[in-house]
Amino acid sequence: MALIDPITPDEYIPENMSTTVPVGNARPKHILDPGFDLTLRPMRYPQFFDMYRDAIKNTWTVDEIDFSDDLVDLDRKLMPAEKHLVSRLVAFFATGDSIVANNLVLNLYQHINAPEARMYLSRQLYEEALHVQFYLTLLDNYIPDMKEREAAFAAVENIPSIKAKAEFCFKWMDEVHHLDAITTQEERRKFLMNLICFATCIEGLFFFAAFAYVYFLRSKGLLNGLADGTNWVFRDESCHMNFALEVVNTVRAEEPELFDDRLEADIREMLRDAVDCEYQFAADVLGEGVPGMSLPDTREYLQYVADTRLHLLGYASEFGSKNPFSFMELQDVQGLSNFFERTVSSYQTGIEGDVSFDEDF
Ligand SMILES: [Fe+2]
Ligand SMILES: [Fe+2]
């Protein structure tokens, strides 16, 4: 017997099947209402189920990434200032995705009360583990010296510009971590701030700033293995942000009163803090002077990215900055891989055509 493919989920329910919710298992009215709704039919938020299905199509593995050219580049082609850039970058990567994974489990999963959304979060958790594995493999390959490698993994404690970014994340995690249930408006505002922080400031800004360094190096023909892996991570992170923003839109539709002027002001302040934090990191990364990538341009880029995040939330620009980095304007993931004649996974992909940085993210 052929399986039913629930592509249009609610067509799956046979007409004679009761959709009455059993007594004692009242379904939540809003997605942020406390509890662990287990009922997938009728499906309340099919868009999250669709995102889960798309994420499965975007499967890749770390074993596909070939770092051998990178090791030659690190040994023979990179200038000292570029080596410093790479060492700071990988030190950030050493812990960044673990922090995101922790927030996902400790905060987001608990309070987003829809089983189809929790399916997506489960898939995202796997992807964050994959990113952690990718960066673990990257650091092990890039840093042969055990003492240096240990120092890179301890960067979150020892390198001030990386510690500051981690503290920014922990601050917003702590805001909600003690909450077992978010019942009051104030608690839901805190949850929204955490969700928006991780989507727009951490995945959407800290990580996108890191991607810019990778694609800058790629534009000079350097570190193609890192760029190949980053293409996949870039796509994953774009989807994570997309999911979080869809949760925000859902909450906005269900509880519009939460989206008042104070929330907008708080989000703007949080994004300004994130830009400052990332700018301090940029000053460290570019501290030895990297030809072709200036600190003022990097600030402009960070402000531009922050503005695009505000637009995604339905708000006006904060900075009015333009994107100064032409190498970030269009991320044609598959096309660029072909251009460099790298091994491209034959996995089916969830996103077809160009992934345009300007249009979507
Ligand atoms: Fe990640
Ligand atoms: Fe992510």
Account of the 3D structure:
It is a single chain. With 361 residues, the protein is mainly alpha-helical. It has one domain (66-344): Orthogonal Bundle (Ribonucleotide Reductase, subunit A), CATH 1.10.620. Helix content is 63%, strand content 1%. It is built from 12 helices and 2 strands. It has a two-stranded antiparallel ribbon. Residues 11-24 and 332-361 have low confidence and may be disordered.
Topology of helices and strands:
Layout: H1 46-57, H2 68-77, H3 80-111, H4 115-142, H5 146-153, H6 155-158, H7 160-177, H8 185-219, H9 224-254, H10 261-285, H11 295-312, E1 330-331, H12 333-339, E2 355-356
Helix pairs in contact: 1-4, 1-9, 3-4, 3-7, 3-8, 4-9, 7-8, 7-10, 8-9, 8-10, 8-11, 10-11
Strand order of the largest sheet: 1-2
Helix content: 55-70%
Q: Give the percentage of residues in beta strands.
A: under 5%
Mean pLDDT: 88
Total tally of structural domains? 1
> In the CATH classification, which architecture applies?
Orthogonal Bundle
Structural class: mainly alpha
CATH topology: Ribonucleotide Reductase, subunit A
| SSE string | HHHHHHHHHHHEHE
Radius of gyration: 21 Å
Principal-axis shape equals globular
Number of strands: 2
Count of DSSP helices?
12
Let me know the CATH homologous superfamily: Ribonucleotide Reductase, subunit A
Note the gap between the termini. 42 Å
Sheet with the most strands, sense and barrel status: 2 strands, antiparallel
Q: Are there runs of 5+ residues with pLDDT below 50, and where?
A: 11-24, 332-361
The distinct ligands, each listed once, are: fe (ii) ion
CATH top level label = Mainly Alpha
